[in-house]
Amino acid sequence: VQLVESGGGLVQPGESLRLSCAASGFTVTSAIMSWYRQAPGKERELVATINKSDSTTTYADSVKGRFTISRDNALNKVYLQRNGLNPGDTSVYSCRAVSGFRGYWGQGTQVTVSS
Questions:
Q1: Do 4 and 96 form a contact (C-beta atoms < 8 A)?
Q2: Who's near 4: CB < 8 A, 6+ residues apart?
């Protein structure tokens, strides 16, 4: 099982960016897929989740209306579209999969929002 994030980088405030999480060793439809983030000196925060059964999504209050989690079953990927980025969104973003009693993490991708 492997999760590989991509799409991070340096962006200016107000810009948009989409993160990708490519899964292998399992299908994203068989797991609860989530995005987390962790800023320097802060605890890891659950940002968004998409359920395996009905694709319902949930979001942290801090990102509601700005971030969208989705998945592409054919490509076996999960995405996090982030609009209206601000410096407070600067973090390492990580993808997580929970299948049954097992959880898996990606290595994370750095996103820096700065002018």
A1: no
A2: 21, 22, 24, 106, 107
Q: Are 17 and 89 in contact (CB under 8 A)?
A: no
Among 7, 22, 1, which Cα is nearest to 111's?
7
Say if CB 95 and CB 28 are below 8 A apart: no
DSSP assignment string, 62-95: TTTTTEEEEEETTTTEEEEEE-S--GGG-EEEEE
Per-residue pLDDT of the chain (115 residues; tens, 9 = 90+): 999 999 999 999 999 999 999 999 999 999 999 999 999 999 999 999 999 877 899 999 999 999 999 999 999 999 999 998 999 999 999 999 999 889 999 999 999 999 9
Give Cα separations from 24 to 6, 19, 39, 45, 54 (angstroms): 14, 17, 27, 24, 21
